[in-house]
Design a protein that fits this description.
The protein is globular and about 80 Å long. It has one domain (41-96, 106-352, 390-681). The chain is mainly alpha-helical. It is built from 30 helices and 2 strands. Helix 13 crosses helix 29. It has helices at residues 5-8, 10-21, 31-34, 43-46, 49-72, 80-101, 110-129, 141-144, 161-171, 174-179, 183-189, 195-207, 210-238, 256-260, 269-277, 280-302, 321-358, 382-391, 398-419, 425-449, 454-469, 475-506, 510-538, 552-566, 575-595, 598-601, 607-616, 619-637, 639-669, 683-694, and strands at residues 2-3, 75-76.
Length: 695
């Protein structure tokens, strides 16, 4: 599963980061001049009941959306824009009603808006880092049955609400404490960009200007229209899905032969919306990967049935064609992931070296609770001076971070081995010793490149801990559990630093940002398992390839763990050779993309994106390309409107279809089945069916 936070809203973020890097020299352009007459509320007043009530409702909605994306393709776009926009709309409506009633005590501020956005993103982020579509569900019997190796008792743990909630509570907070002492160095001294955080801050600031508020209302109205359309479209489609391979999602758009090879448009509003948010290059890379795999490679390897793999083997067996699909995809993911890991690590070390070398000896870098006096710097803009002053005002004492981290680490090291007996306490301790360094590297690299490598660090933990535990001692389950521990730490660390950047640019207190992250994370530790449990219990053939929710990355992560424990013995004939080819090809393509520069790189596909359809097929890539095409045509007709309302339209399509999963899962739990099965047959098959029915 890959989270495309850094790339999915690239169009908006690049504009925002460019603006964020510029010092505002002209008084008229200064954001903080606009808000100068408005008093910044103390950090306690930024944390309101209404903010967390709205955050809770939005968290449930966004968790359903992220969970659906997790369990279908694993491609998760940035939802920061939607969270900020909807948070503004709901609280603005709330305060307007209270104002008319004469009951309004506290006006709605951009700081409160930032708290809502932070809380919602932290909560819904647990649906990603919690591994419900990857490592956590990869432990289950459903996924283990799809592999012929390591599918015995010690390597299986079926999901239940109790242990999932407990596990998330003991591992999800460590990342927050690991990087808090470095917030001043990262944000003010190193001036890291954090494009996602910068883009979100620009968005929130614009909402609270008079002109921006008018645009926000129009954007919310547009989002509401497409939300309604998407929800009703999902409801309409449900009536025709009364069986396997029924409904619009199985429409053979390009013919039955193309449909057999996963080339069809499945009328998914969600992925049309995702395609409108993701950059063109991501969508084209997905389509290129689909054409290479399902259009060329799999038909050629399929022709070798009986030679390269047994002819009578099950279609889902990893010793057959399915094995080539899964392991070659893994090879590309690892190749591109490792390349980016070392690239970002290199950037991090190089950047740190220059920052330390160029730092004046008299410049104080506090990491404790005492802030240095803020000396006016004439080279700084009014905005930067104002933001720096307030950012340093409310410090979080270092002892809070250290005591919090050590306490939670001790509790976690004691509890996690009771949840996963295969993951010994000393494995957990080793992870927690190494984790702060990796969390810092991820947070720093994310600030430079906006690319979070949380899943890559998780995969490294799979191989290291899995091999250390060994096959005889449940190494597969130990590796997957270690992946969860590592991913939660490094993911929340980079998310928190992004939020500190957003808070810095909206004058929200670091304390309110931290508290909002903690509360949002706690919400996510309960909401995400409950939403997953609803999916798990409601939908037939959940986690099975070809079903409505195949959870493709759960099998990918499990097979990574098997590779780490048992080596390459699990691979079918010639698969290892092909894996080597695609592993090094992914590294080579990534290196070429960096070597040719940004202008030429946008014409070279991204290996990580290309690998996703290798296993899944091209149907969602076609949906996303349709979304790109809609946005492209709209931009050509009216660029200003497309830039202003494109994200709102996309968010409406994603949210409406995502929320439809709640009533559809309730209907499934209640035993209510769709009344119609709309199926498509070839002329010959149809004639046989008619003859059979006629007899």
């Amino acid at each position: 599963m890959e989270r495309t936070r850094s790339s999915s809203s690239r169009r908006e973020e690049e504009k925002a980061s460019e603006n964020g890097e510029k010092k505002v020299e002209d008084e008229v352009e200064s954001i903080e001049r606009i808000f100068e007459c408005k008093e910044v509320p103390p950090w306690q007043s930024q944390l309101t009941f209404r903010a967390f009530f709205v955050s809770f409702l939005l968290s449930i909605m966004f968790t359903f959306i992220v969970m659906k994306l997790n369990l279908t393709t694993g491609i998760i776009p940035s939802l920061n824009v939607s969270a900020g926009l909807l948070g503004f709309f709901f609280v603005k409506t709330w305060t307007k009603f209270l104002q008319k009633s004469g009951l309004l005590k506290q006006p709605f501020t951009r700081q409160e808006n930032t708290v809502i956005q932070t809380c919602v993103v932290a909560s819904s982020g647990i649906a990603f880092s919690g591994g419900f579509g990857s490592y956590l569900f990869g432990m289950s019997e459903v996924i283990a049955k799809q592999s012929t190796e390591a599918n015995d008792g010690p390597n299986i743990k079926n999901p239940t609400l109790g242990w999932m909630i407990g596990f998330l509570f003991v591992v999800s907070f460590l990342g927050l404490f690991s990087v808090v002492p470095l917030r001043k160095i990262m944000i003010i001294d190193f001036k890291l960009t954090y494009p996602s955080g910068t883009a979100t801050a620009h968005l929130i600031n614009s909402f609270h200007t008079p002109q921006g508020a008018k645009l926000a209302k129009k954007q919310v109205r547009t989002l509401g229209k497409f939300f309604s359309f998407s929800f009703l479209w999902g409801f309409f489609q449900w009536f025709f899905t009364g069986g396997d391979d029924c409904g619009f999602a199985s429409f053979p758009t390009f013919g039955l032969k193309a449909y057999e090879n996963k080339f069809f448009f499945d009328f998914s509003a969600t992925y049309v919306g995702v395609g409108m948010i993701c950059p063109y290059l991501i969508n084209i890379s997905l389509l290129a990967g689909a054409v290479l795999s399902w259009g060329l490679m799999w038909p050629l390897i399929g022709a070798k049935k009986g030679h390269w793999y047994p002819a009578d083997i099950s279609a889902s067996s990893l010793h057959g064609l399915q094995g080539y699909r899964v392991f070659i995809a893994i090879a590309m993911i690892l190749g591109d992931g490792l390349y980016n890991f070392f690239k970002v690590l290199g950037h991090t070390l190089f950047g740190l070296y220059h920052q330390v070398r160029d730092k004046n000896a008299d410049n104080i870098l506090p990491v404790d609770g005492s802030a240095p006096p803020v000396i006016p710097n004439p080279s700084l803009s009014f905005d930067d001076q104002r933001r720096t002053e307030l950012f340093l005002k409310d410090q979080i004492p270092t002892w809070v971070s250290i005591v919090g981290y050590v306490t939670i680490a001790i509790i976690s090291a004691a509890i996690v081995p009771h949840i996963f007996h295969q993951l010994k306490w000393y494995y957990v301790v080793v992870i927690y010793i190494v984790a702060p360094t990796l969390a810092f590297c991820n947070a720093y690299g994310c600030g430079l490149t906006d690319w979070s490598l949380a899943s890559t660090y998780g995969k490294l933990a799979i191989f290291v801990i899995g091999a250390w535990a060994g096959a005889a001692h449940g190494g597969v389950l130990a590796g997957l559990a270690a992946c969860g521990v590592m991913m939660n730490i490094v993911s929340t660390a980079s998310d928190l630093m992004q939020d500190f950047k957003t808070g810095y640019m909206t004058l929200a207190s670091p304390r309110s940002m931290f508290v909002s992250q903690v509360i949002g994370t706690a919400m996510g530790c309960v909401i995400s398992p409950c939403v997953f449990w609803l999916f798990y219990k409601a939908f037939h053939n959940f986690g099975v390839p070809g079903s409505e929710y195949p959870a493709p990355f759960a099998l990918v992560y499990r097979n990574m763990a098997i590779l780490g424990v048992e080596g390459f013995s699990a691979l079918p004939k010639h698969c290892l050779t092909l894996c080597y080819v695609f592993f090094f090809a992914a590294i080579g393509i990534s290196a070429i993309r960096d070597a040719v520069g940004k202008e030429r790189a946008k014409y070279i596909p991204i290996p990580m994106a290309m690998s996703i359809p290798f296993y899944l097929g091209s149907y969602f890539a076609i949906d996303m390309c349709v979304g790109s095409l809609i946005l492209y045509v709209w931009t050509r007709i009216n660029k200003a409107k497309a830039d202003a309302f494109g994200p709102a339209v996309a968010s409406g399509l994603i949210c409406g279809d995502g929320i439809w999963t709640l009533p559809s899962s309730i209907l499934a739990l209640a035993g209510v089945s769709p009344p119609i099965c709309m199926k498509f047959l070839s002329r010959g098959t149809n004639a046989k069916v008619d003859a059979l029915l006629g007899s």
